[in-house]
Amino acid sequence: MAPTAAPPASASPSSPRAQLIHIETDRRLGHEWDEWDGKPLPGNGDFSAPAGLFFGYAGLTLVTLAAIAAGILYLLAPRFATLWLALPAVVVWALAGLAAACVVWLGLLIASYYGGANLLPERLLERGPFLHIMNFTSGVARVFGRRDWVEHAAIDVYNTLAVRRGRKVGKGELLVLIPRCLSKLALDGVLQIAGRYDVPVFVATRGQLARRVIRERRPRAVVAVACERDMMTGLRDVAGKLPVLGLTMRLPNGPCRDAMLDLETMESWVRGCVQA
Ligand code: SF4
Fold first, then answer.
1. Which residue has the least CA distance to atom 3 on ligand 1?
2. Reduced 3-state DSSP string for 250-261
């Protein structure tokens, strides 16, 4: 189904209101929440968690991946040896080197976050390996029933590093992407912010549609709003190609309805991105 765009709204100087472009969709709402049992979400849908939670799970994830690789190598070593006697040792050393590189990288990530200065370029940090580690870590956290908190912490780490880059774009080059589940209060707030800084707002109800909007509008940066689950897939799919800041929400009435967000943070991000 094709996206439909509302004509640009004229914003009065006293009460600016952004252009809102709605994308029709056949999406089944909130498939990320299929297993939701209808009970209130923990913490009233606020999954705030300290960055240390993500770093702990990221370390566990790297250990798990190393253990899986070692197990596979143990099983395949006899076969490797039939090809070339020294091959198992070569593979062991290659994997050991990779594991050491991962440990160093994780150390630099943690030092960057807590040290207040990014120690690697973005392609080697938040817009590079981080996006993969973040997804693997989410998988491990699911096993322990801590998915949403770990994802929240991961997204916070990502945003902290990304905001520090201080990227600036022209007014027409920033895009705000919001989900359809915002409360009226949150939606009004978003539209006012977008109106103040003259940036278009899209309601994109699924990652696939968000990607299409991005392809068609060709922004140079995106401020996206979503729950942790949706944000993870959005960042994974888009952040490697385009600078994205991802604002997570609170879900006081359960998933996919009446979501609340931190409008102050959103305004500071939009203001920070848009060149005067
Ligand atoms: S962003 Fe909103 S609508 Fe989309 S899955 Fe999350 S809670 Fe549901």
1. 256
2. ECCCCCCCCEEC
Strands (E), the chain: 20-22, 174-178, 201-203, 221-225, 244-247
- Interval 231-265: pLDDT, tens: 999 999 899 999 999 999 999 999 999 999 999 99
Q: Report the side by side order of strands in the sheet with 20-22.
A: 20-22, 201-203, 174-178, 221-225, 244-247
Strands (E) across 187-228 are located at 201-203, 221-225
Atom 2 of ligand 1: nearest residue by CA position? 256
Please indicate whether residue 30, judged by its CB atom, sits closer than 6 Å to ligand 1. Answer: yes
What CA–CA distance (Å, rounded) separates 59 from 137?
Answer: 9
Residue 265 alpha carbon to ligand 1 centre in Å? 19
Distances in Å between the Cα of 237 and the Cα atoms of 147, 216, 241 are: 19, 16, 8
Tokens of 249: 């929400």
**pLDDT tens-digit series, residues 191-217:** 999 999 999 999 987 777 888 889 899
Model-level pTM greater than 0.85? yes
Best CA proximity match to 208, nearest among 7, 17, 31, 10: 31
